[in-house]
Write a structure and sequence with these properties.
alpha/beta, Aminopeptidase, Elongation Factor Tu (Ef-tu), domain 3, six-stranded mixed sheet
Length: 277
């Protein structure tokens, strides 16, 4: 079984005030400072474009300027009065970030590559399996899961249903290969290939699966790098645990810069290597 989550971090509408400004709660983990002046889409009766607003720096006190921004400091400005907003927006409507995909050098650059890129990897894997003369030796289940960003919930249900003997999580991981990082901090780096997960804060991958993945990569000349993620978890944990007796689990991770921010970047060659693996 292989699982890639389809959900992305976002927001949910909690209130529309008397002037039409929309308040929200986060769905998933956000670095609040990355929200300033970012465009978002409110998915109401029809999609409505808005912008994240906050108090202008020109009128902040010195203490306010030095304070770390909080989610509660932001609101969504649609440019419409309350009467018009109420026609389109209701409490509970989901909100996503707005960012068209573009190519940036050797990378693809867009919001929510966590985890759209892994969904792409799994779809391409299924295409390759369909056309390959060699078929899997075992039944293969591909799961496109939900609610990973709020607690690995979809993978839990999928694993309970499929009861896999062997399993793979497919997700992004941090590429901390930027100015200011040190080699022991970087986790992974762009352009160094698919990442084979050893552990994260939710799972220690089965040593047999890790050895198997390394051997497959070496035998097939697939470029790979090891991954140890100090904080954060993936569907791999649910795939490993939510089976009677446990599943022999591993994970293919796609190195990603600027993760959980407004725009994320993945190297196109790393994506290709992840599909091969």
């Amino acid at each position: 079984m292989a699982a890639a989550h389809m959900d992305e971090i976002g927001f949910i509408v909690t209130h529309v005030d008397d002037k039409g400004f929309v308040r929200f709660n986060p769905v998933g983990g956000f670095d609040a400072k990355t929200l300033t002046a970012q465009r978002v889409l409110i998915h109401g009766r029809k999609d409505l474009l808005g912008v994240m607003g906050s108090k202008p720096t020109h009128i902040m006190s010195p203490d306010e300027r030095n304070k770390v921004p909080q989610i509660k400091d932001y609101f969504i400005d649609t440019g419409l009065p309350k009467k018009e907003v109420d026609k389109l927006v209701a409490v509970g409507d989901p909100v996503t970030r707005y960012s068209p995909l573009m190519e940036l050098g050797e990378c693809v650059n867009v919001k929510s590559l966590d985890n759209r890129v892994s969904v792409f990897v799994l779809i391409e894997t299924l295409r390759a399996l369909k056309t390959s003369k060699k078929k899997p030796a075992y039944d293969f289940h591909a799961a496109f899961t939900v609610q990973e960003e709020v607690g690995l919930r979809g993978a839990t249900v999928a694993a309970l249903q499929a009861k896999p003997d062997f399993s793979f999580g497919l997700d992004t991981t941090i590429a901390y290969d930027i100015p200011g990082s040190t080699p022991q901090e970087r986790c992974t780096a762009l352009g160094e290939g698919a990442a084979i997960k050893l552990m994260d804060s939710s799972v220690i991958c089965d040593y047999r699966m890790v050895a198997y993945m390394k051997a497959v990569a070496t035998r097939n000349k697939i470029k790979w790098q090891p991954e140890i993620l100090a904080a954060g978890g993936t569907d791999t944990a649910s795939l490993q645990r939510m089976v009677p007796g446990g599943s022999i689990a591993g994970a293919v991770s796609i190195p990603t810069r600027h993760i959980h921010q407004s725009i994320e970047s993945c190297n196109k060659k790393d994506i290709e290597e992840s599909i091969k693996l």
